[in-house]
User: Fold these one by one.
Assistant:
Number 1:
Amino acid sequence: MIAPSLLSADFARLAEEANVAPSADWLHVDVMDGHFVPNLTLGLPVVQSLMKYTNIPVDCHLMIEDPDRWAIGYAEAGSYNVTVHAEAAHNPVKLAKDLRAAGAKAGLSIKPKTPLEPWVEVLRHYDTLLVMSVEPGFGGQAFIPEVLDKVRTARRLVDTGHLRVLVQIDGGINADTIEAAAEAGVDCFVAGSAVYGADDPALAVESLRAQARACTGR
Ligand code: DX5
Ligand code: ZN
C-alpha cells in the first residue's frame, strides 16, 4: 500500500492535491501541534473539510501532545485510520478502544529512537504500527535505515500470529529506499516529497508500488 503524505502538497489547494494520485491506498495527513514536534500544520477543521473532497481513505498521523483528548475527533470526522504517538499517549490502550468505538482503525507510532519491545503488549489493541524513519516534524528528510530492525521484529510478530497490526513506515521513502523497507516487511509506505515532488504524482505512486511489489513478490 502507498499513502501519499499531504505534508508535501500545496496547502492552498488541499482538496485538489488530495486527489492527484487516484490509486493511492490511503491519504496520509500529518497533524502537528508545534509542541510534540517543532512544526505546525493543520487540525481537525481542515480534516473535516477535506473529507468532503476525497474518497481515498484518510490516514491521520497525529504528532500532537495529549492525543487522549484530541484523537477521537479525527475518528468521529470519518478518518479511516488514526495514529497517535506512543511517546505522547497517556493511556494508549483506552485510546485504541475509543478510536475503534468511534469507527476508525487505531494506529500507534514510534519515533526512530523509541524501542519497539515495550510497546508490543499495547499493540495487541491496535490495528496499525507506524515506524517513523525520520524524526517527526518535517518532510524531505533522509531515511534512517536503523529503524528497519524494528520493522523486521514487527513483521516477525505479525507473521507468527503474536500481533495483528499493519506495518507502516513514514519518512524518507522514495525510489532509493522503498526496496529495503519492503524487504524488511513493511505493508504500507508513506511518501510525501517522493509523490508531491514528482512531475507526475499519480505515476510516482504506481511506480513506488511496483518497486515494493517486485522485491517482495506480494
Ligand atoms: C514527517 C511526516 C511525514 C512526512 C514524510 O514528520 O510524518 O509523513 O510527510 O515526508 P517525506 O516522505 O518527504 O519524508
Ligand atoms: Zn506522517
Number 2:
Amino acid sequence: MSAIQGRRVLIVEDERKLAAVLRDYLVADGAEVDVLHHGDDALVALRQSQPDLVLLDLMLPGTDGLGICRDLRSYSTVPVIMVTARVEEIDRLLGLELGADDYICKPFSPREVLARVRALLRRAHVWQEVPGAAPAVASGPLQVDEERFEARWHGQPLELTPVEFRLLKALLERPGRVLSRARLLEQIYLDHRVVSDRTVDSHVKNLRRKFEDARPGSDPIRSIYGVGYKWEPPGA
Ligand code: CA
C-alpha cells in the first residue's frame, strides 16, 4: 500500500492549474486532497482540521507561506513541504527557521513532488501507525519513543518536527562520532536534491534550541568546525 493511500494532503497554491495538476497526481496515488488558493483560508482551515501533510506555496494572496508555516508550527508538527518560485529564496527561508520539512523549487515535476510527499508520509506513517511494543530508547537523560514519535530530555517533552526527529535519531545511532552534513542530509531526507548544507545547520540549530529550552546548559550536540556534528551530552 502506498504511503499516500488514504492520507489527507492540503495543497495551498494560488496558481490554479498547478494546484489541479498536483491534486490529480496525489489523488491518483490514493490521497484525499483539499486545495486552497488563498493564504487566509489556509490559516483558518489548518486551525480547524489538520491534514497529514501540507504543500505550501510561499507567495500567496493574503497570509503568505511564511506566515502560515509560522502559525502552524506554533501548535503542530504536521509535515510541511514549502514551495517557492526561486531557488535563491531557499537560503533565506532556511535562515528564518520556519520548521518546514522540505523545500521544492518551481518549476518542478509533479512526479518529484509525489516522491517527496511519499517520503515524508512514509516516515510519519511508520511512527504514528505501526503497532507493536518497540521499547523506548534511553540514552542518559534522553528518552525516545519511536513508535509514538516522542522524545523527552531530562523529563521534559521535546516538540520535534519529523526532520528534527530523524536528525536526532541519526546522531544517536553514532554517539561520540562526528557526522558530516552530507551524511546527516542523507539520513534526514529520504530522497531529495541537496539544496544546501545550511539545511542541516538550520535544523541542528532548532534542535539545539529545543534541548536548551527543556534544560538550560544541557545542549548535547557538538559542532565540529568544518566537519559536522556529533552527539555528546555534557559530562558524557
Ligand atoms: Ca504563488
